[in-house]
Description:
It contains four helices and seven strands; from the N terminus they run H-E-E-H-E-E-E-E-H-E-H.
Amino acid sequence: MLRLRDVGSGWFRAVLWIVLFSWIVVVVPDDAGVHAAELQPLEIATKTGVKIFSVEMAATPEEKATGLMHRKHLPDGQGMLFDFSPAQQVSMWMKNTYISLDMIFIGSNGRIVRIAENTEPLSTRIISSRGPAKGVLEVIGGTAKKYGIAPGDRVSHPLFNGR
């Protein structure tokens, strides 16, 4: 067994530590359910009141392509907001997504234009916004029904209103 005190001192020992630490960082797998993304508040004003969510942003092409894939858990009250600026026809799918989601399509004015409820996990079926959407909020399946979220409800977030 190689012991660090046996390899001498100086730069060789430092390089060995770096190599060992790098190996540990690369080999130890990340828990697919743990994510360090910054959460932002998002509000939806419904007929029954305001519901506040904590959302991760998906703005880059890589973030939008990955979305919530490979996750096994999404807490109630959390979600992911996809930025599709400027508003456009949006198509999503559930490939490699293990949890059922509600996909809430939001127009550039911050109004919900469509909700695809309880999407089928792992499906490659295309889910369309059916009109221009500037953003898509993905939350755990059943959320829209649970909180009375419906088309026409207003979403408050800097993506839509600069707040």
